Every structure is written in C-alpha cells, then in structure tokens.
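Quick one, tokens below:
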C-alpha cells in the first residue's frame, strides 16, 4: 500500500499534462518529496524504504531534468494559489488586487502552448 502511495506521487511529478488540476497535483507531489515532511518520512518507512534515499533520488531526477515543470504548469500553480487567496479574502480592496493578478495570470496561461 505505501509503495503505491510513493508510486502515485512519483507518477504525479512525472505527469506532463498541462491542465490546471494536474499541474497543481504535480506541484503538491513535488513539495511532498522536497519538504521531507513527517508524512513523507512515514510513507517511506511504511514502504520499507529509506526516506533520505528516496528524496535524494527525487532531487537527482529534478537536477537532471527527468522531472521538470513547464511554464504553463508553473502559471497554473500560481493561478490556483491566488484564486484560493481570493476566495478567503474579506477585504474588498485586497480582493480587487487579487482579481487583477488572477486576470493577468489567466491571460498568460491562455497564451502558453
């Protein structure tokens, strides 16, 4: 079961899809590997793998370009972050500022191939 969790996270970071949801899933999986959280440590332990070794192998794949993010994937991640901030913001002026940022990001996304 735990090896399947690690495999799914690896599949997420290897995903080349440029949709919003897939880009956000990819970024979340990337953060999970890089941040070396207790959750990551426990998943590796339960899978019978050394967390440091798994993380080092992930970072090597990142450094060598096996795992990479496209410009559009980066834009979707930023868009999703700003959109979440907008939904939680109560201040009208801050909401307007965030909406402008979101609109600009949306334009950049649509121009990306």
């Amino acid at each position: 079961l735990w090896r399947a969790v690690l495999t799914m996270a690896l599949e997420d970071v290897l995903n080349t899809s440029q949709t919003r949801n897939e880009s956000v899933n990819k970024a979340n999986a990337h953060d999970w590997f890089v941040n070396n959280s207790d959750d990551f440590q426990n998943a590796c332990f339960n899978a019978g793998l050394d967390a440091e070794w798994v993380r080092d192998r992930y970072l090597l794949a990142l450094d060598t370009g096996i795992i990479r993010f496209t410009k559009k994937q980066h834009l979707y991640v930023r868009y999703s972050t700003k959109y979440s901030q907008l939904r939680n913001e109560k201040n009208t002026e801050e909401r307007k500022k965030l909406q402008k940022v979101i609109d600009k990001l949306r334009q950049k996304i649509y121009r990306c191939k």
